[in-house]
Protein 1
Amino acid sequence: MRPALLRQVAAFVATVVVIQLASVAGEKAFLLTQLTMSAYYTLVVLGLSLFMGYAGQISLGHAAFFAVGGYTSAVMTTFDLGPFRSTAWVAAAGKVGLLATRTDAFGSQVLAFHPWPAMACAVLLTAAIAFAVGVPVLKLKGHYLAMATLGLGTIVYSVALGTATLGAADGISGVPPLPVLPGIAVGGNGSRIANYYVAGTVLAVSMLLLLNLVHSRVGRALRAIHGAEDAASAMGVDTAHYKVRTFVLSAAMAGLAGVLLTHYNGSIGPSEASIMKSVKYVAIVAVGGMGSLWGTLAASMVLNFLSLRGYFGTLDDAVFGTILVVVMLFAPQGILAIDLRRALRFLRPTRGAPAEPG
Amino acid sequence: MLRIRNLDAGYGSLTVLRRVSIHVKPGEIVAIVGANGAGKSTLLKTIVGLVRPRAGEVLFEGTDVSRTPTEAIVRAGCSLVPEGRQVFADMTVWENLLLGAHVQRGKGGRAGLQADLDRICGLFPVLAERRRQLAGTLSGGEQQMLAMGRALMAHPRLLMLDEPSMGLAPLIVRDIFDIVVRISAAGSTVLLVEQNARSALKVAHRGYVLETGTITMQGTSEELLANRDVQRAYLGKDANEESERGAP
């Protein structure tokens, strides 16, 4: 582990603590709820930033991966297996401790999967879908993945909206909390501050893993692919293989984020799978700078927080669409990469100025 | 080492190479000379699997690699220094070299890696001086050395160079070709393609002339350097007379 990376992550952890203390001191601890939700959405965006920045591809299906994770977990932890208690596989699953009995909001007993095995299934299913989509498409050069994931997004949204078992337009509610440590759980009546720290820890650990990946042999290969794909192949880098692996990793992160936020909210609905959500994630990555993980983290926390607090009102989708257009026009490398001197020169165009050398 | 038989290759509906046959023996330096657009780069790209042949075979050490993925060909010991260097501009000199060792995973470990880096720095001392510099900030000659060093990190038995002299000052070109001779003396076989026929044939043992996708001539470097057609077309001899006669 590089000391520089550890210092960066330590600074992040310190920021998390300062924000929590400030919010409690300012008697605005309710803001921690939106920050917690933002943190889980940030997990999606971080994976997407890694994929877009390092594999040079765009995914318009990350909301779908989020939804696959969230819905899988929601169904597995709420679907009552009580009537099937005597079937062989339910009995077997119960024997190895995969099932848990709890009392739902209406006071009846529900036998369903424990949240942890449900999470494992959810993340694995998301990764498997990403693998199935990615393997054929990422062999091609060009932006075919954007098309394929757009299709996937449409399918997942329609299925979520049109399937009775998935609650159709209402989605699934009554998802039990995910126990983390004794007395601490994601969601339920767990403390707001504890949940905030769980989300902060998830983000910090993800950043550690991603930064390490970027600075490893794999990250070097990924940067080479983005720099000059043919030269990277000539070095013996299996470009298609690395693109698929990055895609699957980023999809799995989206799936995990879906699981965590579903437990936190206690519910999930089809709007999580909508194409606009995917566009929103892409817009946030664009603001933060593709492949710039800290930039993406900052952009995502701020924009998601503002969006969740309702600052953009009914124009939410329009705001993110506009952000995407403006960033692509004026700061394609992300907000942090803006050269202020150049930007100022742009504001004062002189008549008949010579064209800038290309 | 390398034997190519009746190779056809191209892009889309465009056929670039027609029935090309060449071979390279272990320890040789072989030069393929020809004009711009003759198909020299396509030939090297086809050997390493970046372009797929339409017909014919590419035998590397006796095995047909015409359907083998590029990374497996590189792992088997055939490395390409691409045209225009193609160093990874946003990465440091050191990272570029480490990337060259990408296929060496697990072989030799850290000590082996360090030994390789030392070996490359012995060949190109300037790379050691500039190890922390971004590759994009190097001069053309230094980038060429980095591209060659990067390819050598993979321990190629066959090193292929695509236009190593392109865009370099004559003095630097001489340095580059001196290094090619030293690489060959150190045990690598070299296949290079060049527009700069004179420099290439001076260091090569044998050569081929590639014209619009077909091999039109082959022989030892001495034979080719002495050949009148080669002299006129590629070595610039008689060029003054030609242009004087051709002028209205």
Protein 2
Amino acid sequence: MNLKLKIWRQKNSTAKGKIVDYYINEISSDMSFLEMLDVLNADLIKKGEEPVSFDHDCREGICGSCSLHINGRPHGPDGGITTCQLHMRKFKDGDSIVIEPFRSKAFPIVKDLIIDRSSFDRVQHAGAFVSVNTSGNTQDANATPINKVDADHAFDAAACIGCGACVAACKNASAMLFVSAKVSQYALLPQGQVERKKRVTDMVSQMDEEGFGACTNTGACEIECPKGISVTNIARMNREFIESNLK
Amino acid sequence: MTIGENFPAKTPEGPIEHKWTSYKNKIDLVNPANKRLIDIIVIGTGLAGASAAASLAELGYNIKAFCFQDSPRRAHSIAAQGGINASKNYMGDGDSDYRLFYDTVKGGDYRAREENVYRLAEVSGNIIDQCVAQGVPFARDYGGLLDNRSFGGVLVSRTFYAKGQTGQQLLLGAYSAMNRQIARGKIKMYNRHEMMDLVLIDGKARGIIAKNLITGELERHSAHAVVIASGGYGNVFYLSTNAMGSNVSAAWKIHKKGAWFANPCFTQIHPTCIPVSGDHQSKLTLMSESLRNDGRIWVPAKQEHVKDIRSGKLKPTEIIESDRDYFLERRYPAFGNLVPRDVASRAAKERCDAGFGVNATGEAVYLDFASAIIRYGKEKALVTHQDANNEALVLELGKEIISTKYGNLFQMYEKIVDQNPYETPMMIYPAVHYTMGGVWVDYDLMTTIPGCYAIGEANFSEHGANRLGASALMQGLADGYFVLPYTIGNYLAKDIRTGTISTDLPEFDAAEEGVQEQIESLINNKGSKPVDYFHKKLGKVMWDKVGMSRNGKDLKNAVEEIQAIRAEFYKEVKVPGDLHGFNEELAKAGRVADFLELGELFAKDALFREESCGGHFREEHQTPEGEAKRDKAFQYVAAWEHNGSPKDAKLHKEMLNYKYIEVKERSYK
């Protein structure tokens, strides 16, 4: 198929960016979206132009590196996937495709389609851990049975890959889904109880400091999350937050 | 100390089950106040690097951790699917430290160091305790206890898992431990930084030259020890299940500075990956080995059916049982579909080479869940008091069970191939997945460079010639959480009075100049071909001649061809952009330059090893049934010393003596 690509180009974090048009031909429908961009970049290099920079690594939907906003949707026009899992069979010959970086004040642009998501790391530094030393002198793993339903819910929350699609999808650029997934994982497990109150307070306060917006419960984050993280986690975090401030 | 003084491995005395304990009792310790005066650099933040960084920081050392990704959480350990082994014997099926040790040595075809493997088995149980304490959500049964499953090459269920995302959950656990230390200021994290070279002072590893991938600036970092946890080199094949950025460069740079490189030809070709779809392919996707617990592998028994399948006239589901060849069950009745990876991969290749491959390229076999769906469905119907003879109901219930076990894998397959694996068998083919070879290390995990350590997939030590499923995660975390924190202290105890290492020393100047020269020459090269052109060309030689089966003639050709590609690379490569700012092509060019050297040593090692063992299959050395034929004369680790260029690399042999295991024919029949 032949396609027109409208891609955000920006030299570095301080430069002014703009949309540039590219035409690309003979794209196979079995290609992944990122392989299509590889073809474009090979062309650009051949022509002596600078290739389009984009983040990618595992190309199997788990590392959370890829982060494109495609035709107005984080990770493009398919549900439950990351950009690297998007295939060209979702497009038609002659389509125009708009490719932008994820947009949020807390995710400044590094170059072209690459963004800086270190704000996510800093929110995790604030409390996304259990304060246990890695000395190995812990109790036996089976000493504390954990109800399977809670364990499964904790796993579902822990499946977050930290890609930032939730922030990109949100009209307020809120990070509530991301933060609440981590808060929920620990709140549901016995190991997370000791620091339960401090954790949610600290993480929420760091989240606010990073400039993420507030949550207005539109649920767009859940729709675009490649791992199907549920907004139930946001409700749980709100509850945790209120409870942590009651005493 | 001079380079190579710790060779061979300096393993402790005493009976094998006491070696690690007595070692720990005798080593030098660093007191807590002195640990604050010591800096350690850790390269890579996968399971090994992240667990090491967190543990060393907890002990009190000052850690500088580096990763090329935008966050330590994205290291490729994140993609490991199936699980992690531990000799907990929670299932009561006869498991023990000795059995895990035995299975690992046997699975590695008797090419691993006994003492290291026993230690690994010994600490394996502790890993699970540790991870649970960190809040890693492993799969549990309805009683609330941890669930286990079985993996290839063993007869017990010792694999702990978190759906098909075990690596992700373990890495996020290690990342959370790192986060705690980052918050305390004990780890300084350098994201989007690449190690460009190692700096040696008086023969000791004392720092690195790193490149900030965003600004393009070179940076100097000093330390009292440097830990390489940069993973494996599967991307030398271009197409592999590794992440796009996975590379050999950190390991290769230390090799060129004096660290010996061991068994480079020991590579794991994983049997269950999604087949190649076309020339545009940028990487391959693994389907977890856990699928072989329930999936049956087959090809049509009749050639005419193969033809009709390829032309689309016939569907796999229309082929009756008696016309199917379940070739693993046929050849290996005792282990069936759960034979080790090397055996399963070669068996699939044998069928495809014989013309029974089931996709357009002829390089695919089926992995079929139909009988598992029915088996689970019937069981569920009985347990829930429903009609077990109602076929539609049984199928529905069976698919539900399969979905809870492998849902994310099935979804991943469907997105890539556009076929529904609940309805039609998956198509799979072997792909490069893991490298058992790596930097040579002694019992302390120290390389032949004093103060330079290699852990996780980057080293060579535990898996011999073939790694068993779910053992990579175990080794990465064992090295980082429980082994290195002890052994590194034994070395650093001598460094308590050294003080901070200055980065103004002439050794740093020289190393930085060398790096600057290399990247300038790459960017100023007036070639016409992009980096990928050379990487693909190298990968094709590696796959065709140094892949699943190898022979002397092809290997000799491969060595020459790789030399030629390398020469062409330096003449013809074209790297766009400039030195400053983010330049992925420049980073790629540096990595491919290293692969072009490693590839040659890899082929040379395979040529030299005149036997078949584990993942290394020499066509000249096989039994009449086509099984690998080991040779006692090669019962050693081949450790290569750099000597100017791969062709002049010098071989050192670490002989392997098995005192606790009888070396036997490895049979899975």
Protein 3
Amino acid sequence: MYYQLINFGNEEFYAYPNKSLYWKRLNTLIVSDLHIGKSISYAKNKQFLPPYDTKEILNKIFVSLDKIKPSNLIIVGDLLHDVFSTLSFKDQDHKSLSQYMKNTDFIWIKGNHDKNIHIEGFKNFKNYKIDKFLFTHIPIETSLFQICGHYHPKVKISHRGKTIFKTTFVHNGKIFILPSFGILTGGLDINSKQISNVLGKKNLSIYPVGQDKVYKL
Amino acid sequence: MNINKSNLLLLHPLNKWMKKKKWSWFPHQIETFWHVQSGSDVVVFAPTGAGKTLTGFINPIDDLIKLKKFKGLHTLYISPLKSLANDIVRNLEKPIKELDLNISFQVRTGDTTPYKKQKQKQKPPNILITTPESLALLNSYENAKEFFHNLKYIIIDEIHTFLDNKRADLLSLNIERLQTFSPNLQRIGLSATLKNKQDAKKWLCRKKPKIVSYENSVLPKIKILESKERIPWSGHMATYSINEIYKEIMKSKLTIIFVNTRAQAEYMFKNLWLINKKKLKIAVHHGSLEKNLRLKVENNLSKGLVDCVVATSSLELGLDYGDVEKIIQVGAPKGINRLLQRVGRSNHNLNTPSKAILVPTNRFEFIEAKAAIEEIKKNNLDKIDLKEGSFDVVAQHIFATACAGQFNINDLYKEIIKAYPYKKLKLNDFKQLINLIQDGGYVLKNYDQFKRIFQLRENKNIYKLVNKRETRKYRMNVGTIIENPMLKIKLGTKTLGNIEEVFIQNLSQGDSFIFAGQVLEFQSMKNNLVQVKRSKSLISKIPSYSGGRMPLSTNLANSVRALLAKSNMWDLYPEQITEWLKRQKNISKIPKKNEYLVEQFPRKKNFYTVIYTFAGWHANQTLGFLLLRGFKEFNYKPLGFVANDYAIVLWSLKEVKEIKTILNLGLLDKHLDNYLEETSIVKRLFRDNAIISCLIERRLPGMEKTGKQVLFSSDLIYTVLKKNEPNHILLKSSYEDAKKNMIDYDRLREILKKIDKKIILKKLTCISPLAVPIILEINKENLSKKETDEYILEDLENEILKEANVLSIN
């Protein structure tokens, strides 16, 4: 699989076009903001999005697990969209999950969307520390390097008279924000207040996600 | 029927008023009265100034007086524009007040206050003047049946604007609903002159259908601007003629300059001001301007307080501006009907001819203008193609029906297929649309507990809305007009109007552009407001509004071809045009009326193929893409193409040898799906479909969700659906819409069916005179959105790598 090498906190990470991040030294795969079951949550309000997000996101995860066979899978928050989300899990989905859990440790860091939800087999954490890295949904005050999600970053690129928006990996040397791994999730401009309050505006490393490639700006 | 009808209206309640005004009844008014009285549904065709509005009201007023103190709603009048509805009220008021008739009438549009609307529902007037959207809303109320059950007449004004679009579909469904409520309802349509009158009749009439027609014998006087300047090869801005246009404005009391796009309007307006030494009062009018600014211009126009207004189609319909002396059409007329409609805005008097001047902005447009004038002399109008109704409108109608109360799906289906656009609607498609409203209509059933409408247990054919809250959602989403995401422009605290978000995204702080006739400087964008200040800069980007690209009508295209081939006419043209055509004849060929000229020549290392189809922009754009694919298959290494109304040019690395093998019907069948896939045409139409069918909610003023986000999320839905459920009814609906509206499928098919025997191939050593205009239009790569995105990213990355003096590691 094509990847973009990203240096962060003196470690090497691989950014994949499927919006996952891989830490090779520790054989750990990292994803964020899957928002599984967003469609069901919208259906409550009679907005009937296609009900295929759960199936597709799980498949995307499973394909990655098959290829990389990581020891750990860290989900940095918002695995589920809300309490109704598990309604969209089929029996087969639960079976597959427990199958994969035999070889991979699932580390579920809770996000604002899935704080109080429990799924069998998942280990829940508020945040998770490895060496000098802290995995957390929303960044906190700390001297550690942080890897987080929550913001669904996108970047606006204006070039030769054209403007495009692209989902992106982004960090400022101290804080790394993953793009959303979900399929019905929108995004937020990295220049927006919410993100620049966290990352600042200067010295950002930006890695937009293309069709089969992650770029570096 | 040969009876003497001339005395019929002598006893009419309005006759006294007519006499006082020294007016007499028009023959078509008498005839309409007769037919309607005999129980017919009627379509009346008459030019402006021939008392069309009054024609519609003759029977209702007569009936109301005879019935004496009729209580409740008697007549419904549907107008395509809110402003027109207000105008109708003013016109109706005069005779009713002067004669002191006991008839009540009111207007109901989106602008009517909630208080007034509530009162109207409690105590309806005899005559209600409204729009298709307001009618749809009225039909969604629980008491709709009682409200309409005594309705005697429905009058559809400007019915020719209602025949070929989704608004027409919505209206047709609601007319059938009224007919169910009030079986005796009679329909009266009022239209400008049309070529296919029978089609309009079929669309509207059910009971003893009749056509009444009144042709104007006074032809308009239209000429082409005689310019001493050189008409440019290419372009659309008419800069060359600006001084001569200004002189024409000075000669007349009041002039309207019509242009084809909003960008042209802004450009023309600005350039006129630059040379406005006589301080003429010149104004601009287009659909993006703030309502108050527009109303101000309209007011000044009707009071004769301006000398000239530059306008787009926004001034085509509607109000009677009696004092307009002259129309100037800048740019190609595109169609006969459109030109006549515009020309008709001057001199609203039947016996004096309208006056108009055409200003072609390039050489092909000169031929087009000439051809249009010829066709108008022959009274050869464009046909309006009736189309099959769109699915998304039916979905919205189902939702509306559910809002009004529980309903039987079999009854609803029977009612819908009475509407002309839905004659062929299949029961299976209808059921899928029911499911769409119920829970999205997906094969995977995840939403059983969240349904919007549900079947009654005791009768599976009866559906009911799950709760009242949903009616509010329907009412927020009613209608078929979906605007592009627009942002408000603020100069200080003053709102100037709306501009497309896409345009603003391409601006940086300090960039200038023209809007509402002023050069403005972009400052910031906050909370969906675009803050600007006045700029002193003369260099400006011009708003590139996406709307307004009208393709050349088939009728006019045929006439252009015929005219081009008539070489005995050439000497009557300006010398530069004659010279241009003569040289074309010597170097290459002028195609005959039924021929398709194909020219091929080398130029700057590339190989060029130019095909003159005269098929209009939509069809040519589609054909260009298909040929690109065809060329790829034959390994000619095509690099790109550009299309305009008249021709397509493709350029490739290798010589294209088998053009006759490639250019035929097979090309369309083989590559069309790919085309729709790779361009974002279907995706864009899917957004409209998702909103109209109420699958996703429309952006409303004050809502946090910006239009862009709606666009974004509908793109996501499209992608997921495409992958998991390619047969979903909304995808089908979007494809159908694309075929109908965006790619001119039928027109292209017609051409390709017979093209192979009519190709005239000319191998040249260099570019031909006829090809120059389109070659000049080559300025952008025509890559699909997907490819463009990747290209931009890659290019940017490479540039940065170069800058940093690092070579790519791969």
